[in-house]
Amino acid sequence: MFTSEANAVPLSAANARLLLKTAGHYQDARYIPTEQQRNGTVVLQSPILGTDLAHYCSGTVVSPTQIVTAAHCVESQDPRSPDYGLTGTTRVYLGGLGGQMITAASYEIHPFYFDPEIGTPKLGAFAAGDIAIVTLSEPVPAGTKIYGLYNGDPIGKVATHISYGTTGNGDGTEESFTPEDSLTRGRIGQNLYEIDLYNAFEFGLEGAHLIYDFDDGTPEHNALAWWLSPLERSLGGGLYEVIVDQSLAPDLGFGLDEVMMAHNDSGGGAFIDGLLAGVHSFGISLAEQWCDGDPRNGEYVNAPDMTCALDSSFGELAGDTSIAFFYDWLMARLIFPVEIPAPATLGLIGFGLLGLGLGRRRRA
Predict the structure, then answer these.
(1) Within 13 A of 35's CA, how many CA atoms are on the CB side?
(2) E strand or H helix at 195, and its extent?
(3) Residue 122's domain is classified under what CATH number?
(4) Contact, 92 vs 42, CB < 8 A?
(5) How far is residue 321 from each of residues 74, 279, 312, measured CA to CA in Å?
């Protein structure tokens, strides 16, 4: 049976939080970055005062004394953080937790992040401006890689992601987060920037967020095609089926090289042509009520998420803050910025619940 109801899947049907899961087994050597590949990437450790806990994020060196990370990594009251309260001095570990430690002296968050219309007050995890510059108390040592900034069009480009968060398998079978593995060795892999958040869901700022999905090579778990498809049909009894148009997002991934960011990967870098192009910001999955097997509140029989949980498994989406979008703001603040001319470039990877209509899908 077909209906004509509009806005079939509102974004309130999605889960999103700050959250690299891997297409193959997460201990496969292909996912372990070499020391050279980790050079220029960092772990940020912010201790929670009065506890024995700490908040961890990733980041990228962009000048001798500055790191780029996500705003929600340094804004301790961000609603996506599992820990509330004041944090102590942030420690920055070069090349992973086993590397040299330098304390943070200060940080600056893009003002969009606090804007009442396009920032966290209204858009939550999908706020524009989820980007920050951390200034170190001393310069990084000689030999530390300093990344330049990508200023071309990232859509349709393959990005290499490096960060230090939770790792595990894309099919949801295993998950791990340990100081000696995740935080020290990190993970590396690839994904494709397919669209920006505004053109996918018609809210936010056009070009501010770069969207990609976690593919396993099958159309059934092609999350972006599922979300972009404009039609669905009612099967009766609270059951619905999205009529998936695979041509809207035909990419099915990079086989075993495919990765997706996970918890504590926030702030980590995504690189195009050796330049920092994206900063890990948020992930998206269909809320469990829509794929939990109970049709009383509505159920999608062909939901793309393999596990029906926000766990960075196959069939989920993620969003990175675009460096190109914030390029001028960043370059105006970097001390001794590196500028590397390249075609269309100069210079060199959270999540909450948001109730906005997608405005893209209709039942017919």
Answers:
(1) 4
(2) strand 195-196
(3) 2.40.10.120
(4) yes
(5) 15, 5, 18
Q: Is residue 130 part of a domain?
A: yes
Q: In this structure, are residues 107 and 136 in contact, taking their beta carbons and an 8 Å threshold?
A: no
Give me the helices (H) in 205-272, please: 223-228
Phi, psi dihedral angles at 224 (to 5 degrees): -65, -40
Euclidean distance between the first and final Cα of the chain, in Å? 9
In the chain, how many H helices and how many E strands? 7, 24
Q: Which domain holds residue 348?
A: 11-363
pLDDT in tens, the chain (364 residues): 222 222 333 333 333 333 355 565 667 677 788 999 999 999 998 887 777 777 888 999 999 999 999 998 887 655 444 444 566 789 999 999 899 999 999 999 999 999 999 988 888 888 899 999 999 999 999 999 999 999 999 999 999 999 887 666 666 666 666 667 778 888 899 999 999 999 999 888 999 999 999 899 999 999 999 999 999 999 999 999 999 999 999 999 998 888 887 766 789 999 999 999 999 998 888 887 888 778 888 889 998 988 877 777 888 999 999 999 999 999 999 997 555 554 443 333 333 323 233 334 443 3
Structure tokens at 337: 């910025």
Q: Which helix (H) or strand (E) holds 134?
A: strand 132-136
Is 2 among the domain residues?
Answer: no
- How far, in Å, are 39, 72, 104, 151 from residue 128 at the CA level? 28, 11, 24, 18
> What SS3 class is residue 123?
helix
> Does some domain include residue 4?
no
Q: Which residues, 6+ apart, have CB-to-CB distance to 166 below 8 Å?
A: 19, 21, 175, 176, 177, 182, 262, 263, 264, 265, 312
Measured distance CA(27)–CA(8) in Å, rounded: 39
Helix (H) / strand (E) containing 91: strand 91-94
- Stretch (H or E) spanning 185: helix 182-185
For the chain, how many structural domains are there in total?
1
Q: Token pair 């960060």 is at which residue?
A: 163
Whether 20 contacts 167, CB under 8 Å: yes
Rama region for 336: left / alpha / beta (φ>0; ψ in -120 to 50; rest):
left
> CA nearest 188: which of 269, 276, 278?
269
